[in-house]
Design goal:
167 residues, alpha+beta, 7-stranded mixed sheet, 4 helices
């Protein structure tokens, strides 16, 4: 008796799917939780994090504002984690407002925040995270143990949060 492997694997796949088991190795995309500007500012205020904008505003569609509208919850939590872990003053100067570089892991999509360049936070990043080289634009980068990326853009820190940093 000759067994046809293709037929056997098809039957096995059918049986497993009926049991709720998948044979695929692909993982589903992670859904992110978005928060409002008001929710983010409450989180930041409660953690002792400040924010500022060159325009003194929070309009997401104005590049001189600092907006947190549609910020990822994990990004906001990452800022709180950085503040608590470092013990440093933390001032956010860039959020989800227009005017930043585009891309999947961008400010607009809620993955990035910009911070004022304070000595304390700079020393914390450089002493606690791993230097991973220069970004394509020449900015030196450090990677936290959680996998988040801290880029020194000269006059501020540009931070990419893939997760909350151990919150």
């Amino acid at each position: 008796m000759t067994i046809r492997w293709k037929s056997l694997t098809s039957v096995l796949a059918l049986l497993l799917s009926l049991l709720g088991v998948s044979l695929t190795t692909a993982t589903p995309a992670h859904a992110v939780t978005k928060i409002t500007h008001s929710q983010a500012t409450t989180m930041f205020r409660n953690a002792g994090i400040t924010w500022s904008s060159s325009g003194g505003c929070s309009d997401r569609y104005n590049s001189t504002c600092t907006s947190f509208e549609q910020l990822n919850l994990a990004t906001a939590q990452g800022a709180v984690t950085l503040k608590q872990a470092s013990g440093c003053a933390l001032n956010i100067t860039g959020g989800t407002e227009t005017g930043h570089a585009s891309g999947t892991y961008s400010h607009w999509n809620g993955y990035k925040l910009d911070y004022s360049k304070y000595t304390c936070v700079g020393n914390y990043i450089k002493n606690n995270f791993s230097y991973i080289g220069l970004r394509g634009d020449g900015a030196p980068q450090w990677k936290s143990g959680a996998g988040n990326i801290y880029a020194d853009e000269g006059n501020h820190w540009d931070v990419l949060y893939y997760n909350c940093g151990g919150c």
